[in-house]
Every structure is written in C-alpha cells, then in structure tokens.
Design goal:
Blueprint (H helix, E strand, L loop, with lengths): L9 E6 L7 H14 L3 E5 L3 H6 L2 E4 L26 H13 L4 E6 L1 H12 L4 E5 L15 H22 L2 E6 L6 H10 L3 E3 L7 H13 L5 E6 L12 E6 L5 E3 L2 H13 L3 E5 L11 H19 L5 E6 L2 E6 L11 H8 L3
Helix pairs in contact: 1-9, 5-6, 7-8
C-alpha cells in the first residue's frame, strides 16, 4: 500500500554485488528523473559498505553526463553485508539519518535486495532495481546486464568455432552462472554449441563424452561445449571452487569445472581439448543498446515509485511493461525453463 504521508527530499542510490554493464545507465536515469520531482540525490559509494562507513557524494546532472555507455559503476560496488552484525546495522541506520537520506534505491541481485527487504521491514523507504548478469532473479523477465553478457559469450563461441574447426579440437567454454544457467543456455543456443551444461541439470561425464564421440563418428571433427561455473557432475555434491574463501553473504568463488571436464573429455574421447574460462570478461565493457534502455526504464520507474510513496517494491519487466512487485517476491532464484533447455538439446 502506498505511503504518501512521508515527505521525501533526498534519495540515496547504491550499486551492490558484482558490477555489470548498465549500472551507470540506471544511476543516470535515477538522477535525471529525481530532479524532475525536485529531489536531491546522494550516491552511496561501494554498495552497502558506503552507508555503513559514511562514504557518500552528491550526484547532480553534471555528475552523470556522459556515463550512459560506460561499463562498471561510477559509485563503486562491494559485497558487504550490513546485517552481519548489530553494530553495522545500527551504523547504517544512523548514517541514513545523518546524511538526510529519506529513501533508498538499491540496485543489485538477490544479496543486495535481501538487505533492501530487511530495510523495508525496518520501515525505511526503499525501492529495488534488479541487476545481475545471471538473469536469476524471480519476478522479472530480464535483469539488465544479462543481454550484454550473452552477447559477449556468443561472440566468444563464434571465435572458438573457427579455431576448433581449424585444429579439429574440442573446445570447452566455462561461463558464469552459479545456480542458474541462463547465460550458458541462451548464448549456447545463439552460438550453436554442441553441448550445454547448466546447474539445474546435473550431468554425467560419460554421457557427455559419448555424445561427443558420436558426433565425431558422424564426421564432425570439432565440438563446442559450454558449461556454467555452477554445473556439477552427477557424482559430485559440491561446487568446483577456485578458492575456499567466501564473501560476506557466504558465497564461494567458483571456477574450475571447465578444466575438470576438459581433462575428462581428452582422456575418454581421445580428441585434443582446450578450455577457455571467460570469467570477468563477461561483466566488463559497454552495455548493449538493450541493456542501456532497460536500465534506463528501471531507473525512471524506481523514482516514480518513490514519488508515489510505493515502497518495499522492486521494479520488474513483465512483457514490455515495467511494473512494481513486492521485494519479497523478487529475491528467490529463477531457474532456466526446462522447455527451453530441452529445445537446445535438439541441436546436439
């Protein structure tokens, strides 16, 4: 229910979690739309860490000039969890009052928005904007950053095709996707991958190798395998990780499943195999036109929700409309549609 009794003068905006293309487009849209309603905007540096440590800066229309096509975020980001301790939580609340921030626009994925949900429960006006290249937030058709990541991965598959065909090799491409394989699936379809392996469907290494053998027997002397970093063989219970360290939300740094699979393929299929791990290349660079427009629409709609007193929501894409949904409906994970994944297997 909208709360029109609060007098809003200043909006704070932060970008949390992993960076992705389109964040600056959101910041620009929030600042420009806020000024239409005579709101001031304060940029909170480095995600939730900034409001805990009191690192903020005023944002003006001059501040956001020229940032639309830039990747990353001019505000910086972090994976800080301000709810990890009572001391940090109180410091966050104290600094919101100290800097006169009446409402918060939180731009991020499930971790960032879970903190935003808690703030709403504390009666702090907050609106969320969905950001993740993994496209794994429920409640919205697409998150911004996803289209750019898919474009980068598709381009990588196209490039690997030429060298794989020239050398008669099997190429394994490891891409991002901790719990959901949206990038692997969509880019794999777009790039004509010969196997796509995702977290939602545990895979049998023997089955993968058998499929590659049959492809070779049909005269196909090269293959492309796209695997999400969170994909797991059927005989493993845990992720393959690059480090034992975890962030403040308890997430391990994933990486290595591609190399594990590559070794297995070379041993069992007998074909020369190479592994490419795209890693943070998927996050970088200028956003696509699609992501620039989507991020801009999200930023405008978020400020409009604040102006209307509609707090505790995330702005979401439903069809071709941007609509508000409860934050509590937004922070569950969205898995790859099984029908879409089965369609991709037609081309194996």
């Amino acid at each position: 229910m909208a709360d029109t009794t609060r007098k809003i003068k200043t909006i704070g905006i932060l970008t949390g979690g992993g960076d992705c293309p389109g964040l600056n487009a959101v910041i620009r849209a929030v600042v420009k739309t806020a000024h239409l309603y005579d709101y001031s905007v304060i940029g909170i540096r480095n995600g939730w860490k900034g409001i805990v440590e009191g690192e903020v800066e005023p944002l003006t229309e001059f501040s956001v000039t020229g940032i639309l096509p830039k990747g990353g975020t001019i505000l910086g980001t972090s994976r800080t969890n301000p709810l990890k301790s009572e001391e940090q939580t109180q410091q966050m609340l104290s600094n919101l009052k100290r800097f006169g921030i009446d409402a918060v626009v939180a731009v991020g994925g499930d971790d960032t928005l879970s903190v935003a949900t808690r703030l709403h429960q504390m009666n702090i006006p907050v609106v969320g904007i969905p950001k993740t290249i993994d496209n794994d937030l429920s409640g919205t058709d697409y998150t911004f950053g996803f289209d750019t990541a898919v474009s980068i991965v598709t381009d990588a598959i196209d490039r690997l095709h030429t060298t794989a065909e020239s050398h008669h090799r099997i190429m394994v491409l490891e891409v991002m996707g901790r719990h959901a394989g949206w990038i692997a699936t969509i880019a794999g379809i777009a790039g004509g991958a010969d196997q796509i392996l995702i977290p939602e469907v545990p895979f049998d290494i023997d089955d993968v190798c058998e499929g590659l053998k049959k492809r070779r027997e049909r005269g196909k002397k090269f293959s492309i395998v796209v695997i999400a970093e969170g994909a797991k063989p059927t005989d493993m219970n845990n992720f393959v990780t690059a480090s034992s360290k975890v962030d403040e939300f308890g997430h391990e740094q994933l990486g290595g499943i591609g190399h594990l699979l590559g070794r297995a393929i070379e041993e069992r299929v007998g074909s020369e195999t190479r592994v490419t791990v795209l890693g943070h290349v998927q996050r970088g660079g200028s956003p696509t036109a699609h992501d620039r427009v989507l991020a801009t629409r999200y930023g405008v709609k978020a400020v409009q929700q604040i102006h209307e007193g509609n707090y505790g929501v995330m702005v979401a894409l439903h069809g071709d409309k941007i609509v508000p949904i409860p934050l509590s409906d937004a922070i569950t994970q969205k898995k790859v549609d099984p029908e879409l994944y089965e369609m991709a297997r037609i081309f194996y």
